[in-house]
C-alpha cells in the first residue's frame, strides 16, 4: 500500500489529529496540574496508543490510567506506572494483569472484598505486589463503596492483605456534566462527599497517600476538590463536541475529527456523508444541543442523524451547499468511542500527514 503523504491520499471515513492542537491541549493540562500541585495520570481510553501515552509522559504525566487488560498490556510498552481503574473480576483478567512486565508499578481501583481477595491471591501466586485504591461512589451511582464506613472497612482489609499495598482512594465525577461555569454547587457537594470519606480514613489511621479523581468535564475545577492529589482526564488530549459545548475547551482546541466525503445531496436541506455510526459512534451529546457531531470549520452544521454508513448533515441553518465528492471534517460528540472504531489515527499539520499511530489497545 502506498504511504499517504496528505489527507487527499486517504480513503474516507478516516480519523485525523491536528498535532499542533493536541500538543497545545497537553501543554495546558500539564501547566494547570503543576500550578495546583496535582499529579496528572491521563486515561488511555481516549487514544489507545502507546506512542500517545509516551507523548503525555513527556508532557509531564506521572503515569497512565487504563480500563482493560488489553489497554494495560499495550500501555506497558511505553509506561512503567499504570492504574487500572476497573475492578479485575475473573481469573482471565487477573492472569493478564499479573503477566505485565515486572518493571510496571501496578495499582488497581476496586470496591468490593471479592475483587480485593481475588487480586491479592493472584498477586501472591505471581510473587508481585499490587497497589489498591478503594473506589468511592462520588454521586454517579455506577460503582464505588457507598459510605465512609464501607471505605474504611475495605481500606483496612487492603492494608492487611499480603501482596497488596493500600495506596488510597479514587472516584469518578461522571455525573457532573453541566457547563463549567455552572458546576460550582456540584463541585462543592463532591468535595464535601469525598471530604467525609477522607476524614473517616484519617481517623482510622488509613490516611490515603493518593486521592485520585477528576474527569475532562470537571478538570478545570479540580483544585476546588479538597484533598485531591491526582487527576485522570482522558478526552482532554483531543477534546470533542461535548467538551466544547460545556465550556471545558474552546472549539478551536478540538484536535480530533473524522474526515468524510459527501456522497449524496439528493434530499433537499441535507447532505449525506460516508461517516455514520461506525465512524463517529451513535452516542447522544450530553449538552444543551442535538445531533451526533458537527463540522470542524462550520460548527453550526450538525450531523442530525446516523446509520451504520451514513451521516446526515443538517443544512437548514446555512447557505453552504456542498457538492458530491467534497470532503468535510466532523468533530464527534464523544471522541473516545470514535477512536475505538478505527485502526489508526493520522496526525496532520494542515493537509500534510506527519504522524501515523496505530490504535493498538482496541479490542480485548
Describe this structure in words.
With 364 residues, the protein is an alpha/beta fold. It is built from ten helices and 17 strands. The strands form two sheets. Strands 1, 10, 11, 12, 13, 14, 15, 16 and 17 form a nine-stranded mixed sheet that branches. α3 (69-75) packs parallel to α4 (91-98), α4 packs across α5 and α6 (148-160) packs across α7 (184-203). The longest helix has 20 residues, at 184-203. The radius of gyration is 22 Å and the shape is globular. The mean pLDDT is 96.
Topology:
Blueprint lengths: L13 E5 H17 L3 E2 L9 H9 L5 E3 L2 H7 L5 E4 L6 H8 L6 E6 L2 H14 L3 E6 L12 H13 L3 E7 L13 H20 L6 E4 L16 E2 L9 H5 L10 E9 L5 E4 L3 H4 L12 E3 L7 E4 L4 E4 L12 E6 L2 H5 L4 E6 L2 E7 L6
Parallel strand pairs: 1-16, 2-9, 3-4, 4-5, 5-6, 6-7, 7-8, 8-9
Antiparallel strand pairs: 1-10, 10-11, 10-15, 11-14, 12-15, 13-14, 16-17
Helix pairs in contact: 3-4, 4-5, 6-7
